[in-house]
Amino acid sequence: MRRAFFIVGPTAVGKSDVAAEVARRLGAEVLSADAFQVYRRLDVLTAKPNSTVLAKAPHHLIGSVELSEEMNAEKFRTEAETILLRGRPTIVVGGTGLYVKALTHGLASLPEANQQLREKLERTTSAELLRCLRSLDPDTAEKIDRNNRRRLVRAVEVCLVTGKPFSAQRTGWNEITSAQGILVYRDRDEICSRINQRVEDMFRAGVVEEVRAAGNVGTTAEKTLGLREIRALIAGEISQTECIARIQQATRRYAKRQLTWFHRQTNFPSLNLTAHRPAEAVELISQSASRVLAGND
């Protein structure tokens, strides 16, 4: 971790472009901490960096996992630490808070998935899962993202498998004080505009055809923003206009949750990209990252 610098923030803020340019300037590599860009295919839907950005520095954990495979924070941490332990200067960039925290804090030891129980819980409604979690672990039920079925299922599963509250088992977080980085964000109006424009650009770039051709998608990749809405469009259940509007709204809400999460879960200083020209922002971040990546901090 001594030669890793984190650039975190909400979706559509411009993290990937900034990280690649900082890495190019400092002779570093880029490690993606994005729960959906890690999958192969669905490049447009997950807004993977384009070839120009990727050419600026070696990139890791982008398009490295099959869509049918399940991915989680523990698997990510294992793969990411293998890369980081080589000791090369690395920019860790992403907006998946749990993946970032898996590296900055470590992970509590939790039981493996119980497939039979998992399948049973997957057939349960979100409302029923939340009621169950309230009875098993009121603290987690109060704090959990109620719209995230995957987390609801996992929390209930851990409670039932271990016989202990999920919250009691998350006390294994141990902050790694050497982790350093920056939280990038933009003014609310700008980030909303960027999100709306990105979704419109996705449709012009053929995202509907991409989803249609995706084939077998596993339970984790199923959570990719926009996938459900585009499938509804393909099935003729909604119009393209409605589909775009729904994805834009869901993405704006997601960005808001991400920003709140990073403010609460990290102590990284923040940088408002709205207030700086791109070159200025890159220079400021490069200055912060250079000492860390040199291993002198």
Please give a structural write-up:
With 297 residues, the chain is an alpha/beta fold. It folds into two domains: 4-107 and 174-293, P-loop containing nucleotide triphosphate hydrolases (Rossmann fold, 3-Layer(aba) Sandwich), CATH 3.40.50; 115-172, Orthogonal Bundle (Histone, subunit A), CATH 1.10.20. Helices cover 51% and strands 8% of the residues. It has a six-stranded parallel β-sheet, sandwiched between helices. Helix 2 links the parallel strand 2 and strand 3 (59-60). Helix 5 crosses helix 8. It starts with a strand and ends with a helix. The mean pLDDT is 91.
Question: Which of globular, elongated, flat, extended, rod-shaped describes the shape?
Answer: globular
CATH-defined topology of the largest domain: Rossmann fold
Number of helices: 14
Q: How many distinct beta strands?
A: 6
Distance between the termini: 11 Å
Number of domains: 2
Quickly give the CATH architecture of the largest domain. Answer: 3-Layer(aba) Sandwich
CATH superfamily of the largest domain: P-loop containing nucleotide triphosphate hydrolases
Report strand %.
Answer: 5-15%
* Estimated radius of gyration: 19 Å
Kindly state the percentage of residues in helix.
40-55%
Low-confidence stretches: none
How do the strands line up in the largest sheet? 3-2-4-1-5-6
What's the helix-strand series? EHEHEHEHHHHHHEHHHHEH
Rounded mean pLDDT score: 91
CATH class of the largest domain: Alpha Beta
What structural class do you assign from the helix and strand content?
alpha/beta
Biggest sheet record: 6 strands, parallel
